[in-house]
């Protein structure tokens, strides 16, 4: 991993020298990373398109068992959808692979960005600890007595403070020593590495007068608060827009999914705000860049590789196809049952929940009647709700009374 970190750090350092600003280098670096990840994004989009093409058939399966919420029915729905995926050679987890691959990449990038002294300047851990100890040690003990907010959050703040101070202010580092696990390290070695880095040019973390190498303080308001605020706004907008241009698969409970999405739309941006208050502002800026580029990439993929849209006729055709396959399946099972009975075998056991009534000739008519009665009851319930809403409208009392009478007659007829 250290070799990978060094290679990426060297490249980021080259971008910094090319642009003259570390933040601009981060922006170019984010673009390059998104380009390298583009094949994975294309694969994910293709997987979404394949899943979208199966939507009419999946909806036909769900409609077949509409109104039945018992566990046995839900298990059968899931089983039939899985069988559909197997027949079509579709793997619903295929779109997860690109996401899983991106996680280690993001972790690598984070370590490179947050540790420029190690991965850009090539300083060893011992040198970095010696410099950090020198800056935080009391003046009476040979240090500078500074307070670093992010001692455990990499070296970006440390390098930012060193750049602001200048090499001349670090002269006493040459006579400073630091002990690590019983081994003494000389500050002169660290000073030599910093001197060479100053000659080459240290990264510039400043943008519009803001030092993005510092950590925004929640207790002390400052212009650096713009970074957490922009992080929240951009991340929130990115999630909303990206979801709009991303295929959303059918689920058994769309309301539950919608509620879950709303929670994520708030909690994820808030978590990003929390992280931007405990890490250098440059990390927040990189996250802003990445969110914007990810959104633009998803919109572009959606335009170039659109997800198919279906009409009501397409859904009805899928229902007819499903009904045809069910009839063939029922006929086959009836033949098997007859043969089994002739041989003294045992007939297939049917579900006690009326799940498969439509699949058998002798119960299909009853199943269709039951389904039709359910639909009529739902329609009458809908009309009753609309009638109740209209009761509050002047001049509609007689009409509402007539509608209530019709609904009441209908309910009595259904009960009979």
Give a concise summary:
With 416 residues, the protein is mainly α. It is built from 16 helices and four strands.
Could you characterize what this model shows?
By secondary structure, the protein is mostly helical. The chain has a domain at 312-415. Helices cover 68% and strands 3% of the residues. The protein has helices at residues 2-19, 22-36, 38-53, 55-64, 71-87, 96-114, 116-119, 125-136, 156-165, 187-200, 226-244, 254-276, 281-304, 312-342, 361-390, 397-415; strands at 177-180, 183-186, 206-207, 210-211. The strands form two sheets. It has a two-stranded antiparallel sheet with strand order 1-2. A two-stranded antiparallel sheet has the order 3-4. Helix 1 (2-19) packs across helix 6 (96-114) and helix 4 crosses helix 14. It is elongated, with a radius of gyration of 33 Å.
| Ends distance | 75 Å
Oligomer: single chain
SSE order: HHHHHHHHHEEHEEHHHHHH
Sequence stretches where pLDDT stays below 50 over 5 or more residues: 335-352, 412-416
Number of strands: 4
Radius of gyration: 33 Å
Described by the principal axes of the CA atoms, the overall outline is elongated
| Strand neighbour order, sheet with most strands | 1-2
Task: Please report the number of helical segments.
Answer: 16
How helix-rich are the residues, as a percent range?
55-70%
Task: Summarize the helices and strands and which ones pair or pack.
Blueprint: H1 2-19, H2 22-36, H3 38-53, H4 55-64, H5 71-87, H6 96-114, H7 116-119, H8 125-136, H9 156-165, E1 177-180, E2 183-186, H10 187-200, E3 206-207, E4 210-211, H11 226-244, H12 254-276, H13 281-304, H14 312-342, H15 361-390, H16 397-415
Antiparallel strand pairs: 1-2, 3-4
